[in-house]
Every structure is written in structure tokens, then in C-alpha cells.
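## retry 2 of 3
previous attempt timed out at serialization; input unchanged, resubmitting
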Amino acid sequence: MQLPNTNPEDQINSGEAVAVDEVNKLFLVTQPFDSVTGTGSAIYAYNEKGKLVEQIHGFTFSFPGIALNPSSRIGYVSIQIDNSSGPSLNQLQEFSY
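## retry succeeded, writing output
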């Protein structure tokens, strides 16, 4: 499926990781460079027919992976945290969908 506000010829706004939620019949796609807000990263939830049902913005992914707990509709992604005393740190961020 085409991600929101993207050009099919522009790979920078492509989705990277996909996770399937078989319980709620959704699949979630990570987008490292958010094409809607222009900053950070995003997650898009699609139903089985490929219809976009939810957009979640405000991440800064450090790795493209995504993990889901379908029974509670909670997911986890690895984000980058700025560290004023040294290099950036990676941390898991929880989100609901």
C-alpha cells in the first residue's frame, strides 16, 4: 500500500518494518522518515483490505523493528534518545493502537 503523502518513486519515505496483528486483523508499518509531519518517524495501521485506519506520529526510530501484543493492542519500537553527556541512546517506546 502507498503510505500517506509519499511518492512511489521516492524511497526515503518508504515503509521499513511490518508487524501483523492477527487478533485485530491489522498490519502496522514503520516509516523512518514521517511523510505527513515532515519530522521524526511514524507508524501506520492498515486493515486486511489495505485501508489506512490509524496514523501514529512522533517517534524517532533507531531501528526499524516493531513488536506487538495484539491482546492489549500495545506495540514497541526502538527509538533514539539524545544524551547530553555523550552519544545518543536507544530505548524501547511503548505505544497503543
